[in-house]
Amino acid sequence: MEHRSSPGPAVRTASNEAVRKRPKQQRAAQACERCRFKKYKCDEQYPCSRCRKSKRECVYAGDYHQRESSRSASYIRELEDKVAALTSQLQIIQSQRDHPSDGVPTSMETASDPDINAILTPRSSERRAAYASSPSPVFNDVTSESLDEEISGVNEHTNSIEFYGNSSSAAFLGYLQNACRPQLKEYLHHGRAADSPSSLISTLHNPGFSLRKQTLLPRHQNFYFEQAHVFMEGYFENLNLLHPLIDKEDFSARVHDLWFGRDRTPEPSFLALYLSLLSLGALTRVWDESQLSGMTRFEWSRKLFSEAQMCLKELGFSNDLETVQCLYLMSKICQNELNPNLAYMYLGLAIRTCLSAGFNRETRDPKSQRSQSISKMWWGLYSLEIEMSFALGRPDTLGMDEYHNRILPERDDSEYAIVTWMVDFARIIRRVSVKVYHSKAPLQDKLQLSSKIERQLDAWLSGLPHKIRPDVLAERQSFTSLKDPKWARRQRLVLCVRYHNVKMLLFRPFLAHAARNPEHTSAELEAAVSKCLSSAEKTIDIIHDTYTMHTFFRCWWYNVTYVMFATAIILLRITTIGSSTETDRLVGHVHKAVEILAAMDESIVARRSIEIINHHLREIRASAADSVGNTHIHDQSYTTVPQTDPIEMLLPELRYGLGLPDYTFEAMAGLFDNLSDFPIMNEQGI
Asked: Which residues are in the Zn(2)-C6 fungal-type domain (predicted)?
């Protein structure tokens, strides 16, 4: 057996000396998790020096309680100091709640105080942030009020649950109903569901715009050639001037190929677009005749809408421009049929289709005609999505703006420039939604934020091209505007109405707050209330004056929403102030609103809106007569509206929805499936 020779004494001595010369580093028994991960030297304190310096949470694996018992006295004193500081701050906040004073910092100031944050451990900072963000009276004096204005319930006609947030006109009508409830109690019968939100959601439902099952798509041999010219003109000379998202020349060229058989196998997506455009044109054109080829306005529109739906079913999911345009038009049809819930869902489908096709992203050839068409379509949908979502008190589905780098249409003097300006307008609306309606800031902070947003809104208005810039200060437009093209005049009109609508929405929460707390007022609050009322009155004046001169505006059925929102604001103010010198002027505007709605009596929603307004006027008049013995509010009857006993007119007993949907989410989700029993529109007229 071989034996290895051991190193000699000289070798061992050199090796031992090398070991003795190497500095011996003491190794920690166990480092904290962060030091272990970063391979730092840990001092085993709790927290360790490195975690304390970087303000990170210090975590040890293993026996935590053993380390906890070995903490130093200095660390315990440090914790005691932190507890004392936090206790002091809580006492200040409590004192502020019990005895509000200008000298005490607000909860928002306390939450952002860097000196306070510096003394908090990371975990306690998280707990404190969670506490600050919780809906508590300490941190939020307005949010709890806005929560009371939200409504959710089952539409009795669809058996579907619908939600309307605090920025929606439906929710504000619910608030108006609750605000007037003390005046209604004597009229209530036992067993009435006075507090049920479902009854309000079902109040102004449009039963003529309903869905039923149909298995076959009727094919017209010449694609409604005789009526198509009229309906196409009804669309391109009206709503397309406001939302110029579909090119008339390109569309007309493709339609001629369809009519004269040059396109033997038309694309299903274009056929769906064609039918939906005819439907919207039939719905919003001026009808000098009562019928066309034996059918009324609504019969034609709903028939064509049904066939467009069937084309979408046959098409399945398709990511082309024509499908997006069709879904956009379907949304506008539902909006003008006063079914905003269904409009919201169709618009959501259009947005999703754009995102899946990448229409929101820039291309290598942004100057091509098709790329420019997609740009107009995408940014038009972008602004409409924000507006419609806010109008219903719901979130939009756009995500962060960083996702969308498609180049905007140019800000020139053409009719297409409004697309880009409406994107700016929509972003202001989003600020109203986030900073006013969904913010937990105190009332005073919201007043300041609203004033800032108002300045941004006015700056946007001032920056509009001269041709489409509304003159919101003067009572009438200058005579030079008479030479402007039709598209400029109509864009200017609609921008003026939208401007005042957003101002109403911007300051409406302060009107509601003043109505709830009439004893707590201030100059700033009264100024906000005055701005809200002023825009409500101007909205009614503008629409009333336009209805007097132009018949086309009476066929834009979505005006019912603007008028009802403005009227609800005025009625709430009348309810709050009672009889005063201001009352006669306000009631005069309410009567104007009824005249506007009476001019649209083709719509059952408009007729029932008149009933609601007259009902509230009777209740206000009865309350004023009981308390004063006389009233400034004079009765006024309209032959188009049947007068009914107040008990029969109570809102909770009306069985029709607020222009809201009769199409369930499940049905919408199955829009493109292959089921043979696909539902289509009821062809019964209003």
From this structure: 31-60
Structure letter (DSSP) for residue 433: I
**Per-residue DSSP letters for 24-70?**
PPPPPS---HHHHHHTPPP---SS-HHHHHHT-----SS-HHHHHHT
DSSP 308-364: HHHHHHHH-S--SHHHHHHHHHHHHHHHHTT-HHHHHHHHHHHHHHHHHHTTTS--S
Task: Read off the pLDDT of residues 242-290 as tens digits, 9 standing for 90 and up.
Answer: 999 999 999 999 999 888 877 767 788 899 999 999 999 999 999 988 8
pLDDT score recorded for residue 452 = 96
Residue 62 confidence (pLDDT): 61
How far apart are the C-alpha atoms of 427 and 203, rounded to whole Å? Answer: 32
The amino acid that residue 52 corresponds to is R
Residue 462: the pLDDT is: 93
Signed CA dihedral, 434, 165, 148, 577: sign only:
positive
CA distance 281 to 236: 8
Q: Which residues are paired to 680 by β-bridges?
A: 212
Q: How far is CA 454 from the centre of its chain?
A: 18
Q: Give residue for tokens 């493109």.
A: 672
Residues 6+ away with beta carbon under 8 Å from 229: none
DSSP character for 394?
A: -
* DSSP code at position 163: E
Low-confidence residues in the chain, pLDDT < 70: 1-29, 62-77, 88, 91-155, 157-172, 175, 179-221, 264, 473-481, 626-686
